[in-house]
Each structure stands twice: as structure tokens, then as C-alpha cells.
Amino acid sequence: MITRKVWFAILLIGAALLIVGLTPRLRGASAAPMPQAAYTLQGRVYKGDTGTEPPTSSPIQGVTVSLYCSNNQGVQGTFLRSTTTDSTGWYGLEVYDTDVCEFFNIIETDLDGYISVGATTVGGNVVNANWIEYTTPLDGQTLTGNKFWDKLPVLSGRVYEGDVGDESTPLAGVTVSLYGANNPYPDSGTLLASTTTDSTGWYGLEVPPGYEYYHILETDPDGYISVGASTISGSVMTENWIEFVIPLTELSYTGNKFWDKLPVLSGRVYEGDVGDESTPLAGVTVSLYGANNPYPDQGTFIISTTTDSTGWYGLEAPPGYEYYHIIETDPDGYVSAGATTVSGTVRTANWIEYAYPLPGQTFTGNKFWDQVPIPDLTIAAAWFEEASICYYVENIGTGTAPAGHRTLLTIDG
């Protein structure tokens, strides 16, 4: 019988023969060559307008830039590798000797909330603001200076004085603010930035990422009231409020407009008793005065106008006063009968007073009534003097009684 020791020796001899037989084959095999970096396509990513360099622009760190391989011009192709920009905005994409492509495409991916505004290259071809294309062979070409510029969206527009749609009078110095929120109107959210309009009424507000809703709020200049707003891609919530919803990409950021006006204190003048609106009076002079004291201090004359054929008048009230006084001048041959107002205070039959601030008050409905004076003679007292009857006549009318009146006296009994 073959002992265990013999079997073990046989196994050792077999293993040794196997190793000897394999050794020549292993020595004859060679490892596959490692890919070698042959070129580096490089550049930078900046925040700012296309073509601007620091300090006008600023580098953006953490932007993903990728390299694609294609055999067709204008086709992005197959993804090869990607990298991210460093603190100086620099990136480098290695091209290996194993990358066999007719075109190499550098694709920049915008950071969250950013939009691409442009790109430049020395040796390649700019396809769009995120895409630079190189044609092989790369030998002899400039592979540096492949730059991209990104910006945060800027919501912009203008503020005008006048009726909605009238763009003839821009308003400078108007405060416009941007708020970010995760809820829609009426939640204004967190204040992000504010600015003031320039001499052309223009404003611009840079939009940082991180919110679901962005609200543009316009603050009326002192003494003005808002009359309306318009937008292209947002939603008008009030005369002072425009709302945008993310994503902002592909939206129009411009054309967010607001209109403000000075308050116009208005009303009508009628002929007749107070409350009778059947007969409007045209050509009546109505004036506006501004004062820092209430009635009876008339203050400083501001403007005057005359009523139209419907008896209507309107007086634009500029800022700068604590009290505004509407004073009606009786037409020749008329006397005032009374006045009414909605938000003001009637001081006399010719005088209506408004107190600052005017916004929030009703500016219309300031009415005056005038009458043609009519005499009305009545016997106020009568008495006897010896054989004569004496009496006293009083004019209780609004007009002057002419001389030479006759009195009819009736005696009962």
C-alpha cells in the first residue's frame, strides 16, 4: 500500500512540475501600457460679463467642466472625463494618447442659480456660451485660454411717472427691492437686495440661488401712489409687486415695469342746492394750496384749473406739505351754497382740506355747489305809531334786493 507520506511526496513533485511549466509563459507575457496624458485643454470660469477679467470679474470655484469625444462637428459626443475649477477659476482636462476623436468638446455646467453669458477661446471654436470645440490634431494649437463667463440672473426693469403704459417720463431715485421666499404671494420672504432707479428709471437686482419664489417690490416715492405694473415672464400681484417662480432659466428677466403718479385731488362744481348734481358748472376756477398748518392757514399756492363742461376738475398734489387745501372761487354772479368730500374735511362752502399722508385716501368726490343770488324780503317786525302801521323788512335771500320794492299789507278783522 502506498503510504500517506508517498502520496504527499507525489503531490509536491506534481506541483513543482506545474510551476516549472508555467514559468516560461509568465516570463513571456507583457502588461498592457498605461494611457499617457498627451495634452491638457485648460482655461478658467469667471463671474461677470464676457471678456472681463479680474478684478472686473471674479473667479468661480467648483464649476464642473467636462470633456467629450466626437467624430462629428457640432455633436457633443461621448463623455470622457470631468473636473471642477479651483479657487482661481482654473480647470484642466487631460487628453490621453488613447483618446481617438476627430473633435474634442469642452462643456461647462452652470452652477445652481447661474446662467452662462459667454465664452472665448484661442485655438478652439465657440459653439455656444457653454461649449468650446477643438478639431484634431491638437498638435500646434493653443490649448489654453478656454474661458467661460457665468452670471447670476438680474431681474431688471424701469419705473415711470404717469398712467400704465406711458413710458415718456422715467422716475429716478425710486427704491426697488428683491425678496426670496419659499412661499408665493403674499409672503414676501427675506430681503436679498435693494437698489434705486437711475436717471432713465432703470433698476437691476441680482438673484442668488436658494429660493422657490422671487419677489420684486417697488416702494412709492414720497407723495406718489402706484397705479400699475407689467412684466414679461413674472406675475403682477399688485401695483407694487411682481413675482417670479423658479426655475428662472429660459425666462425673460427684463421688462419688469412700474408706474407711479402724484395724487390728483378731483371733484365737480354744480349749480343749485347742495346734493343737486343735475346742472354742472363749467369754467369755475378751483385752486390747490399747500400748508404746514391746518385751516384757516391757506398756505402756498400750488396750482389752479377750471372745470370742464361736466363740471369736473383735477389738481395734482406734489409732496412737501402736511395739509392740502382745495379752494373754489365763485363764478361772477354766483355765491357758494356748500361742499362735500369723501376723505377730506369741509371747512367752508368754498374750502376742503386734506391732511398728509395722501396715499390711502379717496382723492375724488370733492364737490362744490354755487347758486345765483336771489333776494327774499320778509317783514321781520311790525308796530303802530299813532295812526300809522310801521314795519321792518329783512332780506333773508342770497341776492341784493333792488330799491323801490312794494309791500302788500293785509289786515284781518
Give the CA-CA distance, first to last residue: 180 Å
Structural class: mainly beta
Q: What value does the Rg take, in angstroms?
A: 44 Å
Number of strands: 30
Oligomer: single chain
Number of helices: 1
Poorly predicted sequence stretches spanning 5 or more consecutive residues: 6-13, 15-28
Strand proportion, as a percent range, falls in 35-45%
Helix content: under 10%
Largest sheet: 5 strands, mixed
Instruction: Label the overall shape.
Output: rod-shaped
Average pLDDT for all residues: 90
Keywords:
413 residues; mainly beta; five-stranded mixed beta sheet; 45% strand
What does this structure look like?
The chain has one helix at 4-28, and strands at residues 37-47, 58-59, 64-70, 78-84, 90-96, 103-109, 115-120, 125-128, 131-135, 146-151, 154-161, 175-181, 190-196, 202-206, 213-218, 225-230, 235-238, 241-245, 257-261, 264-271, 285-291, 300-306, 312-316, 323-328, 335-340, 345-348, 351-355, 367-371, 377-385, 388-395. The protein has 413 residues and is mainly beta.
Care to give the gist of this entry?
By secondary structure, this protein is mainly β. It has 1 helix and 30 strands.
Q: What's the structural blueprint in terms of helices and strands?
A:
Layout: H1 4-28, E1 37-47, E2 58-59, E3 64-70, E4 78-84, E5 90-96, E6 103-109, E7 115-120, E8 125-128, E9 131-135, E10 146-151, E11 154-161, E12 175-181, E13 190-196, E14 202-206, E15 213-218, E16 225-230, E17 235-238, E18 241-245, E19 257-261, E20 264-271, E21 285-291, E22 300-306, E23 312-316, E24 323-328, E25 335-340, E26 345-348, E27 351-355, E28 367-371, E29 377-385, E30 388-395
Parallel strand pairs: 1-10, 11-19, 20-28
Antiparallel strand pairs: 1-2, 1-5, 3-4, 3-6, 6-9, 7-10, 8-9, 11-14, 12-13, 12-15, 15-18, 16-19, 17-18, 20-23, 21-22, 21-24, 24-27, 25-28, 26-27, 29-30
